[in-house]
Amino acid sequence: MAYDNYARAYMGENLDSMPDYATALKIYNARKPYIKGKYKGERPLGNNRRHDRSRIELDKEGNIVVKHWQTNIITYKPNGDIVLTCGGWSSISTAQIMQELLGVDRICRVHCKIYYRHNNEFHYLANMLYIEPNGVPLYLNNEYVYKPQSEVLKKYRKQYAFFSEYAKQVLTMSSDFRANTTNHSTPSFEGETLKEWYMAPLLNTSNRQDMKARDRARDSLFGYLDSLSIKAEEERLQAMYEVLAPVTYMMGNDFIRRFNGITWSCDYKRFKRGFDDLLKYQFADEIFEQVLASKKSPVRDPNAKYMRTN
After folding, report:
1. Could you read off the pLDDT of 227-274 as tens digits, one per residue?
2. Which among 185, 195, 198 is positioned nearest to 260, based on CA atoms?
3. Which residues are within 8 A (CB) of 219 and not within 5 positions of it... i.e. 6 or more apart?
4. C-alpha 95, offset from chain centre
5. Entry pTM
6. 55-60 contacts at long range (C-beta below 8 A, 24 or more positions apart)
């Protein structure tokens, strides 16, 4: 994948390249300071003085500081060092300014994070990154990813294999489900034990949903499955039948809503994938371990979604 692209196609400030301290000082001396307003004493970074969101100033220690809004994003030191920081704002405009000044071959923004590139390695800015005059980054910001431990995952698959095998038998015969709906167009399932959790979006990780409610819902579901191990076979089969419909409702597709009911489909392949996700969400602390991420490419951890938030 190519990363030599600007974070944004258009930049209104008309910025000049600023790869080192000498160039930064030259550009600073070429700009006239603002004589009034909240940026009085600072100077515009680009040729257009009306674009005052990006500015340049000389501090008491002789450093040339590039500001974006109220954040110092690049500091050029007299000894040749460069300090990059995004102040917690890995925005497109922040990355664009860094690209314009330092070069698109050195700065890229991927997965909503800003990286500094050197010798085919991607160094995450995080809060701050120091760069020597020769371009070598100092005090590296390591990134970590979550890696599943296959043996632990197999243990939990085996623990709940009784439910997966039952689901396989049922879904092989028929993958279609139907439930009556209430006045609010929500399905009404049988079984008193299901009322605590069945309407919670067990697999949805959107921030718009109540994450604590999802955690409680999964706790209730797996607590209920654990309780089935001590039930008599006939009672256990009936309980699993009651659970299967709402679980497939969370994972299903081809939903059709009618006046007094709703139908959906969920085959075993879809169920197996969804139930694996449920196991990973529920037992994430045991299934996953943190490992140091490679710097050969920008880091995106697909397993981070499974970790519970406090």
Report:
1. 887 787 888 888 888 888 888 888 888 888 777 788 889 999 999 999
2. 185
3. 282
4. 18
5. 0.81
6. 56/24, 56/27, 56/28, 56/31, 57/28, 58/25, 58/28
